[in-house]
Write a structure and sequence with these properties.
homodimer; alpha/beta; 6-phosphogluconate dehydrogenase C-terminal fold; Alpha-Beta Plaits; 3 domains
Chain lengths: 362, 362
């Protein structure tokens, strides 16, 4: 007998969650203020349109996937509407939602906030993906009145869709995402905004570094305005640190331009070294250690079928790739495949490929 | 009869260039203050160790690939040492090198500055790659005394290794790279430095966005200290713009935390929208238009050989991929292959794959 989860809000996260839960055998019902968005989610396999007379009765768990600025109100409404259900939300900020829920006077023991660390620079049901949560962190943020049963059910939802659960209080979550998500968003947007009025030949010099730094600058301004506003204090705190460092760099560069610069090179170097140290702490994909995979680079002739041949050769050798990226030179006779494998497989892979005539790179 | 190019400095750029020029049939001779680095470059196929009695006589072109802070001195020395050769350098800043060369009093008509827009977050000969310059922009920056013949030869070097030549004055180059390369580096380093003292559970929430924003924060502090110092005025100018925008965001967040915030949401939204507009101007890989490729996403079962089968099916259908990225969910039964093709090929590809039983994504 399948279990009933109600998803309220069928944007990117709600629809993806519906798809993942449906695939896992849950009975998912969908609602959204926009009937069109809701039907699109249904067509994508996220679940069924909600009705008052669902054969399974009221939901066991309600997931509020509404925009951050209405999440608390929808959580409160849901707690009242379904007096037995556990309610969670997936908003990117947790303390303000919790404060608003507690302030409403509703019995909040059935509420547990959560935040799947999964998103894309695109939004809406059309961008949804069943595997959006695969291997991502999913923060579960109980408050002091959350019942153990409520925490258990929310953890189960996160686990079922493939996420790695991290339990932490709302405040701690908000401070963490200020540094690892919200301030990086501001930095990307601000750096990208400097390109807006640049002459065309200058923009033409853009390389992969700039593309990577600014990729998330393509994110939805409406959503991010709400996120930044909802986590204002914590984001401001980290931004003040960023600004202080930029001030130091500006001062160092200023003293260099007037020919002084005692200590200026040291200041620049310290900033860059601090960046090295911070960057080295970032875990790899799926929470793996930063250097968990070894990369083998192989030249791939630019003709249909050659990459297939490479992968067949790998498969024949019994080597499973963890990740792969292909770089393709414009008008060049070959591309380069960067193949990530577990470290122990790197040398056997390199030897096998070389013996089969593939040309390694690097 | 092959032509003689001398590469002075066998780090990442010099070694890669030697490999590419040797592959193109040039006679490349190498020198470096470090005999070990020089021999490593030779072993990698970058050319031969320089001797005083080269069978081809003095070089036709000298490429100075020394660190930025000694580039000008090595250019001047090279112009004096080889009175017939054209000399170029590949430093990331061009105006200070040019100023120093002109100030030396040497006849600078045989000097033309240049800057291949190619780099990696790794440095040194060991990271060199023959295709480093493939499809990248290569700025050629003549000055008013550069002879047409010198400009022609430097353009030829850039073109032969697969780069797209962009001619612009040194000052214009420096202003451009301040915005598209140097300030993004500072932003990445500063954002990454905020992670240095973060609690472990917080760093564990890092996602792909943070990884992308901070990838280049792993770059060499010694090299980047020189680059930033060498382009101090232009970098400072763009950084002042960045700081002004961060000030606005800090102010907006501050007014929100004290419950006011009139206009604060507007300020946040404007910053994010400006980021959208700037990001949209960045050309795609190899200078292609930002939206030149269409992406088809396909579920790929997580077993050896399945990706090969996918690519064989694509090859059979006569469709050539431009780029591919594979995302692999931890412990999940499938990954997702993101296949970039020319837009006209996207629909036929999707139809073909669907008809063959592949499950599309998105």
């Amino acid at each position: 007998m399948s279990r009933h989860v109600r998803v309220v809000g069928t944007g990117l996260i709600g629809t993806s969650l519906g798809m993942a839960l449906s695939a896992a055998g849950f009975h998912v019902t969908l609602e959204d203020p926009s009937p069109t968005a809701c039907r699109l989610a249904r067509d994508l396999g996220a679940g069924q349109l909600a009705t008052d007379l669902d054969p399974l009765g009221p939901p066991e768990v309600v997931v509020v996937a509404a925009p951050p600025d209405v999440a608390a109100a929808v959580v409160v409404e849901s707690l009242r509407r379904w007096p037995e259900a556990v309610v969670t939300d997936v908003a990117s900020v947790k303390q303000t939602v919790l404060d608003d829920v507690l302030r409403s006077g509703v019995d909040a023991s059935r509420y547990v906030g959560s935040h799947p660390m999964a998103g894309r620079e695109r939004s809406g049901a059309a961008a949804a993906r069943r595997d959006l949560f695969d291997g991502r962190a999913w923060v579960v943020a109980p408050h002091e009145h959350s019942s153990p049963e409520a925490v258990r059910l929310v953890r189960e939802i996160a686990t079922v869709v493939g996420s790695a659960v991290r339990v932490m209080p709302a405040r701690e979550h908000d401070e963490a995402v200020a540094a690892v998500s919200h301030v990086p968003q501001v930095a990307a947007s601000v750096v990208a905004s400097c390109l807006r009025d640049l002459p065309e030949p200058a923009v033409g010099l853009a390389g992969q570094g700039l593309r990577d730094v600014t990729r998330i600058a393509a994110s939805d301004p409406r959503l991010w305005t709400q996120i930044l506003a909802g986590n204002a204090a914590a984001v401001r705190e980290v931004l003040l640190h960023v600004r202080a460092q930029i001030d130091e760099v500006v001062d160092a560069l200023g003293s260099l331009t007037v020919g002084e610069g005692e200590g200026a090179l040291g200041a620049l170097s310290r900033m860059l070294e601090a960046g090295n140290l911070g960057q080295a702490r970032i875990p790899g994909k799926h929470g793996a250690a930063p250097t968990a995979y070894a990369v083998v680079s192989v030249l791939v002739p630019d003709e249909p079928g050659s990459l297939a041949r490479l992968l067949t050769d790998m498969g024949d050798a019994g080597i499973n790739l963890e990740d792969m990226h292909l770089e393709h030179g414009l008008g060049q006779p070959f591309g380069v495949a960067y193949i990530s494998v577990v470290p122990a497989a790197a040398e056997p892979l390199a030897e096998t490929l070389t013996s089969l005539g593939w040309q390694l790179h690097d």
